[in-house]
TrEMBL record:
Family annotation (PANTHER family): DEHYDROGENASES, SHORT CHAIN, ESTRADIOL 17-BETA-DEHYDROGENASE 8-RELATED
Classification lineage: Bacteria, Pseudomonadati, Pseudomonadota, Alphaproteobacteria, Sphingomonadales
Enzyme class: oxidoreductase
InterPro entries for the chain: NAD(P)-bd_dom_sf, Sc_DH/Rdtase_CS, SDR_fam
UniProt organism field: Tsuneonella dongtanensis
Molecular function terms from GO: glucose 1-dehydrogenase [NAD(P)+] activity
Protein name as annotated: Glucose 1-dehydrogenase 4
Family stated for the protein in its record: Belongs to the short-chain dehydrogenases/reductases (SDR) family.
Segments for region (Disordered): 189-214
Coiled-coil spans in chain: none
Highest taxon listed in the record's lineage: Bacteria
Keywords associated with the record: Oxidoreductase
Amino acid sequence: MDKTIAITGGGAGIGRAAALHFHGLGWRVAVLDTDAEALKELAELLPKKRCLTVRSDVGKEAQVRRAFARIEAWLGDDPLDCLVNNAGIADPYCGPLEDLALADWQRWIDASLTAAFLCSRAALPLLRRSSGASIVNVSSTRALMSEPETFAYAAAKGGLDAFTHALAVTLGPQVRANAVLPGWIETGPWQKESKRSDPHHSKKARAQHPAGRVGRADDIAQAIEWLASAGFVTGQRIVVDGGMTVKMIYDA
């Protein structure tokens, strides 16, 4: 039986790279995103029988309920083998703390942490049909280290890490749960056509990484693949950042 993966925020960036990567491995892919244009492009790239695209704001309960009802109908009696909670607000900067409105704070929390809760809850009956199901949460190295004025983003990703180990100890052994923490990842080539770019990084930018380059979205897709298949790994945070967070950088 073919395996199936559901990816939130799958229209662009890391989510798009993951969708294309898993499709290339022979998986069926369900992609959730708010961007209709990006979903349409992705649907045109992948065979309809092996790809389902669903427009959904996964930070909103009613929309998540409808999205997973569509996924269940698409699956029939088949299981969902992996859920990737990737959705979130890409821009981490929220401005000075004293100017941060509660509604704006909540947008960051809902887009990442609340969305992961809602989708994990909705997906659980489908995941429990599988003999080797897993959840992979896409967190960030900003859960471990911060830049100025990234309060809400850092809090959402830190919460996602904690949610991950709570899932692991609660849902195991039926469902494993892990988090991948991307560092500096270039997503320009994995955007929809109207937003696509192929930036060139400076020597200084590359030198910040012991691996010698800035990360690519498909680096994270490969990490997700490993976590989806690593049957004795659960409750873990896997940092994928080219070594950036372990290198001391002094401003001379």
